[in-house]
Amino acid sequence: MRHGGLIAAFCLGVIPGLLFYWSNRQPPVVMRLPAAAKAEPVASVPPAPAAAPLLVQKEERRNLTSSLPTENLGELHRLMTERGQQLQAAQATQTELTKQLQEVEGKLAAVTQQEAARKVAEAELHELLGQVQKESEALKVAAQSRETAYRELESNSQQLKRRATEDTQRTNRRNKLAAEVEELGRQREAYLSNILGRYREATDLFRAMSLRLDNPRDAGSPLSNDLSRIQQAVQLADEDLRQLRLLNAQAIRLRKELN
Fold this sequence. Notes:
The chain is 84% helix and 0% strand. By secondary structure, the protein is mainly alpha-helical. The protein has a domain at 172-258. 5% of the residues are buried.
């Protein structure tokens, strides 16, 4: 619309100038008066001022048109037709440009809207990315805490396993030592029983010898067999006593190891 106004103003400014140009090229028109009146030449119409109102310009253009010859009017009509065609072409071009401008403005508005939506989506994406980063950092901290706790738990588990192994070995050793002590106890009891049996046998032999010595009828019987048997019993009892002492020493050593 702004281009159409400029073109119309251009035409309104050019047409009066052309009219004035063609009027200056023609001789001045002389109006014939009656005989009683003196013929005076009619001066040429001065050009319309550039700043005259639109109505005055139209009136002057009518006056100038009526005062022009026929061939000048044809030329002017041709020029005006060309100007009209140019004006129509300019208006068509303006319409097409306006249409294209509207399409460009529509596309620009769509692009602007898309850009605004993209910025909003980008802001939301940045916000979401920030939240994801925060959650990722929190997960990393939690993972590090779990890893630390797992390492501590694994270390404690290894210590417990080592202690359990040591306790198991200690228990097995104690059980073995207790079994050895128990076996030593049974052997000691056997040796004690043997020693008591040997001394009981020797005592019985001494008692029998005393009875025979006290009985005059048995006084002449030989006592060498009883003495040899008593001597053998005492020797066996001494050997058992020696073995018992060895067992006692082993039992004391095992009890110390158990404690």
